[in-house]
Amino acid sequence: MANYIDIYQHYRPEEEGFIDTVLGWLQWVENRFLAYLSPFLTPRQAMIVSQLVGTNEDVKVAFWGGCEGAERKRALIYPQYYEVNEASFEIQAFNINFPLKFGQLTHGRILGTFTSTGVDRDRTGDIITDGTSWHVIVDASMTEFYMSNITKIANVGVHLEPIASDEILQSDESWESVFLVASSLRLDTLLSKVYNFSRQRAKDAIAGGQVKVNFIEMTRPDVVIGVEDIVSLRHYGRFWIKQVQGMTKKDNYKLQVNVLEH
Fold first, then answer.
1. What range(s) does the RNA-binding S4 domain occupy (predicted)?
2. pTM for this model (two decimals)
3. Does residue 96 sit in helix, strand or coil?
4. R_g of the chain, CA atoms, integer Å
5. Which of 50, 25, 139 is nearest to 93 (CA)?
6. In the chain, what's the furthest Cα-to-Cα distance?
7. The domain 175-261: what is its CATH number?
């Protein structure tokens, strides 16, 4: 095992549990000379995995989320001799068949239905729409379970139809890369800068349960946001820090941020 002393100082305290998990995956691969496939990861988690594997000379890592540009991806940690292909990631996609005349689906309703089955969130990858149709990417081992247990989404009758990876929709989402200067990387500060409103309004939104960080509701305005963290604000959209480009002469952060409008 590579030397991981003091590695925790580079990450947030709340990420220590995930770091321990990843180090366990690395140990498993080193001891058994077999590949380990993770559940679906957020971009921030994928970055952490990549950084930790990068300190280890004996193993490599590859990521795939079912389609090009996927936001949530599985990590395959493997010995150097291992040959990786798309099938290695054990991913299945569904087309959600439903009557367009009698119901409307949303990302939140679909995700809520999949997680309400009792299966962990990390068994579901991206949920993609072109404005009309909806596709969901999942852990292939859950295919039969989902098909048997999900027949309705928000009172709309549905049928999950397995599809091949080359049939997956191209998302209608459009991200814009913006450059901004912020006095800190606090959540409330970044919300204020990205959406051009006051920090008090940002704090109110956070306190009101309207803000998520990496898909989990966040109620602390002072939490520090890192590279690849996904921040979402209800009715506004999502953003993530692509790069911290340095500091200004007044010690403000120069940031490249990708922004998705709602």
1. 185-245
2. 0.84
3. strand
4. 20
5. 139
6. 59
7. 3.10.290.10
